Amino acid sequence: MEHPDIDFATVLASGVHDMKNSLCMLIQSMDLLQQELAEKSESASQELARIHYEATRLNTNLLQLLSLYRIEKDQLPLHMDEYNLDDLCDEILIKNGLYSTQRNIDVITDCPGKLSWFFDNDLISNLVNDMFVNALRYSNTKLLLRAFEQEQQLFVEIHDDGEGYPADMLDNSEEGIHNLNLAAGRTGLGLFFAHMIARAHRNQGRTGRIELSNGGEFGGAVFRLILP
């Protein structure tokens, strides 16, 4: 019996797409349940917030896998348009409201209402959300999300008051972007994705980039996205 030729990567991408849609529905259901549980059981509400956080992480990972697949197939066109940074910040806060409340993290935003920029909204919002979720995980009490324009470039920064990035993550070289250690507990896929999306945004000879550092407003980690 002859077996048909199967492009496993395409089958996997299709499955990932279906899983992502199911996860989105589950996350929406958890948002509704949270409103009812908040007044009835604090412990159950906190557990639901933790599950919501993990489901959001899974959804982000699936989005990253789909994007990597599309890049391999040269099917990741950028859908550029002008977007308001205040709206982007509000979207990030709403998505992560359950987890930030459950962890008692004071989230401060500084995103001017009149600041707008041209970028692919889906890719950039997913990138910033992934880094915001990571910062929530390692923050102790507070976190800052801010956006501003400087030297005709857009800066989006996330500052936390955690212990900061480990030394191996602070190497922002080209070599580090391409060396994914799948055998280690931390693969660096999220950081790889952030580099990839930032570099896909180009304008007037400039290329987008990300920067990692320690110190910042609260003495912890600082994630910085810079778009031309």
Automatic annotation (TrEMBL):
<dbReference type="InterPro" id="IPR036097">
    <property type="entry name" value="HisK_dim/P_sf"/>
</dbReference>
<keyword id="KW-0808">Transferase</keyword>
<keyword id="KW-0418">Kinase</keyword>
<protein>
    <recommendedName>
        <fullName>histidine kinase</fullName>
        <ecNumber>2.7.13.3</ecNumber>
    </recommendedName>
</protein>
<dbReference type="InterPro" id="IPR004358">
    <property type="entry name" value="Sig_transdc_His_kin-like_C"/>
</dbReference>
<feature type="domain" description="Histidine kinase">
    <location>
        <begin position="14"/>
        <end position="228"/>
    </location>
</feature>
<dbReference type="InterPro" id="IPR036890">
    <property type="entry name" value="HATPase_C_sf"/>
</dbReference>
<keyword id="KW-0597">Phosphoprotein</keyword>
<dbReference type="Pfam" id="PF02518">
    <property type="entry name" value="HATPase_c"/>
</dbReference>
<dbReference type="InterPro" id="IPR005467">
    <property type="entry name" value="His_kinase_dom"/>
</dbReference>
<dbReference type="GO" id="GO:0016301">
    <property type="term" value="F:kinase activity"/>
</dbReference>
<dbReference type="InterPro" id="IPR003594">
    <property type="entry name" value="HATPase_dom"/>
</dbReference>
